[in-house]
Design a protein that fits this description.
The chain is an alpha+beta fold and 303 residues long. The protein contains 9 helices and 17 strands. It folds into 2 domains: 119 residues, Rossmann fold, CATH 3.40.50.10330; 134 residues, Probable inorganic polyphosphate/atp-NAD kinase, domain 2 (Tumour Suppressor Smad4), CATH 2.60.200.30. It starts with a strand and ends with a helix. The model has no long low-confidence stretch (mean pLDDT 91).
């Protein structure tokens, strides 16, 4: 199997994990491509380690890898999913960040997970993606988590007219609106008070940001819906972002159309870890935060 290694070169743990992957993997069953930026960030490992892999361009990694290993946090996986696009290459996330809902593997699980993959003991989970486009855009923005339309350069709220399949839903007076996939339901949408939507649901969530009415609530629509968000006036500029990484500014009036992308992201998952396991672990469900706080305080005091 050919693995392509990409990652966030700002993470100090990255060289150590690259070494773990290259040294621990059996050479007769695993071949590695390493992106040029990752190789440069791992130069401290020396030639002896890096000769176990081939340093190639991102294009070569996308063309010839059976599986991509994304080293970083969820942001790295989001970026990798957009980079893969419609190629359908599965992505394994190794978490070098903090929370990491999408990153499947922690640092101490790298060797075991790699062995499971080489033995075929893993599954691939398909996740829907969104695309957003305005008339003035040359190509659509694509997102795995969410598309966000919000105000820019003003403290005033916007008037946001929202249509679903050419049917009028509502005009929100709000700071913006989040259109999220089930994957993105644990990201910005969750912080905004939205529901957690499990990945197998074929749905999209529309969530107004800080709406100026208590009756405005998130709305869940089928994933084949076409959502049109129009800002006729009331904002100096309108800010469009995809996964918090791609962004563009528009001057009203503007209409942004959001729909399901024609391809899906494929995430590698371990067989013994369920989505609910991840929720409990990451959100600390079932644990007493007061006890954890006291434990950390004792640790700081040295006893």
């Amino acid at each position: 199997m050919t693995f392509g290694i990409v990652g966030n070169v700002q993470k100090k743990e990255l060289p150590r994990v690259v070494k773990e992957l290259l040294v621990r993997a059996p050479q007769d069953s695993a071949r590695f491509f390493v992106s040029a930026p990752v190789a440069r960030a791992s130069s401290s490992l020396g030639r002896g380690v890096l000769t176990r892999a081939r340093v190639v361009s991102d294009k070569k990694i996308l063309e010839d890898s059976d599986l991509l290993i994304a080293l970083g946090g969820d942001g790295t996986i989001l970026e990798t999913a957009r980079m893969v696009g419609g190629r359908g290459t599965p992505i394994l996330g190794i978490n070098l960040g903090k929370l990491g809902f999408l990153a499947e593997v922690s640092l101490d699980e790298v060797e075991a997970c790699l062995q499971e993959i080489l033995e075929g003991r893993y599954r691939v989970e398909e996740r829907m993606m969104l695309q957003a486009r305005a008339a003035s855009m040359k190509k659509p923005f694509v997102a795995l988590n969410d598309i966000v339309v919000d105000k820019y350069g003003t403290s005033r709220v916007m008037s946001i007219e929202t249509m679903v399949n050419n049917e009028y839903l509502a005009t929100y007076s709000a700071d913006g609106i989040i259109v999220s996939t089930p994957t993105g339901s644990t990201a910005y949408a969750l912080a905004n008070g939205g529901p957690i939507v499990t990945p197998e649901n074929h749905a999209v969530t529309i969530s107004p940001i800080c709406p100026h009415t208590l009756t405005a609530r998130p709305v869940i629509v089928p994933d084949d819906s076409v959502i049109a968000i129009s800002i006729p006036h009331g904002a100096k500029q309108v800010h469009l972002t995809a996964d918090g990484q791609l962004e563009q500014l528009f001057r009203p009036p503007v209409t942004i159309q959001i729909r399901k992308a024609p391809f899906k992201a494929k995430l590698v998952k371990r067989l013994h870890v369920s989505y609910y396991d991840v929720l409990r672990k990451k959100l600390h469900w079932g644990s007493d935060v007061r006890v954890e706080a006291k434990r950390r305080e004792r640790g700081r005091r040295g006893g």
